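So, who can interpret the following?
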Amino acid sequence: MSHKVGDIRPTQLLHAYGVGAMIDLPNFAALVMGLEDWDTARATPVTEERLLKAVQAMLGDQVEKLLLPPVEPEQAVFGPLAGPPVGVPVAAFPQWLRCPHCERIAPKSSGLFQLKTDPYRPDRARYVHINCTKPGAPPTVLPARFQIACARGHIDDFPWLRFVHKGTGGCNGPLKLLKMGSSDEAVDLLVRCDSCGAQRVMGDGFGEAAQQDPVFACRGRRPHLRDFEPDGCVECAETILLGASNAWFAVPLSALSIPRSIDRLAQRVDEHWTVLQHISQREVVAPARAMGNLRGFEDYTDDAVWNAIVARRNDSARSGDDGDLRTPEWNVFVAADPARNSRDFLLRSVVAPSGFERWFEKVVMVERLREVRALTGFTRIDSPGDYADPTEIPKSLVAPISRRRPTWVPVSEVRGEGLFLQFQEDVIARWLREAASRDREFFAAHRAWRTRRRIPEPDAGYPGLRYLVIHSFAHALMREMAIEAGYSAASIRERIYANASAEPQAGLLLYTAAPDSEGTLGGLVALGEPARLGSLIRRALESIKLCSSDPLCAEHAPRQDGLASLHGAACHACQFVAETSCERGNHYLDRSVLVRTLGSSLPAFFDR
């Protein structure tokens, strides 16, 4: 039987609580299950052909559609005890639970614990210890704090029995997790077997010694798919805490909805393509109109609608799009053609920021935009931010979101606004030649970083100094915008265009997008007026000349003391932003490439 145990926002299913991630509920933890367990009949299809092709390039051509997660209607016509359950399936994980009264730890399958739910109060869902020694009502038990996970995306319950008995079998407990001191640190926790008397300190489950202990050999378990890795796993799992930030990282792909045509009818067909793609004959148009499936097409005849559908279908068949998501967006932004404006994409071009005409060619106010983001997989332990692009991550490190090759992937759809800034290409190119030594320094650090982490092809994936200077500027401006725009700092995101191909790109989009009204308040667009944006950039550059962590921050080099990092003069006080805002996990940043910092002799881009 299905029980509703909580609520999360649809966008959180891609950013924080996607397939394979753990959700920390009030009284227990749950794991989001794989796509086979989802009810796709109640999911809404989304049209975004460029994103679909990029997903197909990663997961295979069998992916047919993008679906929004099933969401219960805000005004449900049925009560909690009637009607079908709507939502995303989860399962209790970890399976081992601990009673805070008698300190007993046991798996859910032991029969010691019973699920209690209240259909009117899902937040009260809990497991209770039905035969605890505590008088009165059975106490609520809590999930065990420790699990094990490996870099190949596997996760498992902590091996309590094998751990306390040091790998020897034959004794099945019962076990207790006892506190020896006043703190909750692992060194103050003791696992004891009441049957044979074996005991072991939890501190033995961490550190280098645990990496050599065969108890922690990864079994290749994939609880979100209800199975184990078919080929097994050669990794040694490491102990992580419940709710650890490295337990799940999304591997997403995102695309902005850019209009394919300046023709209004063609734009409307694009917007309704999830329905119109199923119209295979001219005779079906009139019945579809009568059923209310062609709202918004009242000004067009059936013949015109049918011809537009045929043109759209033929255009899709001829499309040779190779999954490149950024180049079509760049082309639309730099052209900024008002004729292409649509319901989900509205641009207005203005001149360069006052006082910075030398560095910027133009600014485009993106008064309306739509972003669709798809979940293609996830990683554990290591962040995808170490890679230049999701397609570059080795397949062995990306955990799948379904047992079989998926025919659909979950997506989120948000709307918002933003500012696009285009750099002067000749200024960028000239500065890159002058700063070639800095480029070599970052490339060496990039290679050393990947080599130390055993990432295949350590020379690959380097974004280049072009990307680094645009990325560093984006962070400086983003932090200043958060003060002026009225948005929270974590709600502003970046999208960097820094392709150095035959037709080089040099620009950035700072935008905010949300499923509610916060994404369209107009606060970012208002900052795009030349005088106001020029003042904002001036303050942003002034603020990064000195950092409260100087001189340590200013003296930080990509490689120093035998170690490599992916940033130069950058830290939480001057350049780092929220993980949701940065597309590279706060890597490839250096404020010294923008302005002259303390003790720096490097050529700074804005000091020319």
Observations:
- The CA atoms of residues 251 and 377 lie 5 Å apart.
- The chain has 15 helices and 26 strands.
